[in-house]
Amino acid sequence: MISISFLRVVNKLATLPGPFEFEFCHLRFWGKLCLKLAHIVIEMESNSCKGQETSRAAIQNEASINLSKEDLAQRKKNDQGLHECEVLGTFGSDYEAGPESDFAWNNCTKNPGHPRFIPTQEFSLNDLPIWCRKLSVLNYVRRLSDLTVRLRVGYTSWGRPNGYCFSNCRGTKIVHYGSGAIRSVRAETGPCPCPECEHSPSPNQTWYKVFVTTALHVVYNTEEAKATKIDLFYDSKGCIEDGRMKTIHGMNVVDVDRVDEGDNSFIMCATHDTLLVQKIEDHWKQLHLGFSGQLSAKPIKCWRNLCVMVSHPHGQPKKVTIGEMKGCEMLKFDGQKEFTYSTDSCRGSSGAFMLLLEFYQLVRGVSWQTGMMWSAVHSSGGLGDLPNISGWTPAIPEDWPTPFSVSICRALLWLFGLTWLSERFF
Ligand SMILES: [Zn+2]
Ligand SMILES: [Zn+2]
Asked: How far, in Å, from the CA of 249 to the mean position of ligand 2?
């Protein structure tokens, strides 16, 4: 634009009429020179735009023509470092990639046979470590499982920066799979914006915002959120056929971390399914019972803790894995934490809600009822000796204030080492 305005002024000077010719002859000379320069600048600008378009077109072209579907999927799969999204070579998130997902599950090299991945419906007391084999813990894991979702992200945005996860596949529609969890639900009035109602002459006038937490590298921005389908209650293969699995649609990202800050993405979905929302709210209320946590408190590493992950490895029905927290980094100024843990994960687990539970017992032999909990999203899966790592916990705590009673218990245990759940008793 600047070049065009400049060109107009210069053009005017260069074509001044006769009476001014003498006075401005030198000006005309410089005017013509500037005119030439301006043309060169415009040409360069136009070439650079063409260059950008050409490079985009080249990638898209290569994506759709030169590379086979398998090669493109492989490229995307390899373009995520230690992050754990699953790429099954499918296009469009409407397609249920059953056989592709089964193949990835059966041929997994990270956890061959998946011996420690327990189908959520089969998870029982015997799967918990002996020291926390309690019905309350079992119910807790089940509730977390009910709130876990699978994400099918049908587009990779051009907004992903160079060098970032999936940046070599920007602009393509190869689906990647991740996990997440429902964090809250809010009722709204007015026309429902879900895809079903969007083009309907009589859209539902009561609808709900469902907020889902996942990793930033799974859903990067609103453009990707709009291309995302979120599957709830995908507990077994049968859930698709009998309709127990429910799918809602991503609308936009509400809050995301910056690439260099953390790995959290908070997305909003829309649904008008009242029964579904009631079910979600019931599960969420039960998850709040029993355990509390807060951002400023750090888990005590030598105390026994349980680190639970419920995720959709390889896009399969959800599985529970159990392990322990191995480390916790905490930022002093805002209390954000990053956890390392031994809990198993596979591709497809990215964005899963990690739950860390710490247990207390003030008097030996007396059943405990309380504890602390922390949560974070699963960010990267370690290979070999490298541990699994969570994203940094979000800076603003939404809930889970620690009751005074829990703080007092925790402080006493710490002072006197009274808990039989500490390492030295094992
Ligand atoms: Zn696997
Ligand atoms: Zn609707």
From this structure: 10
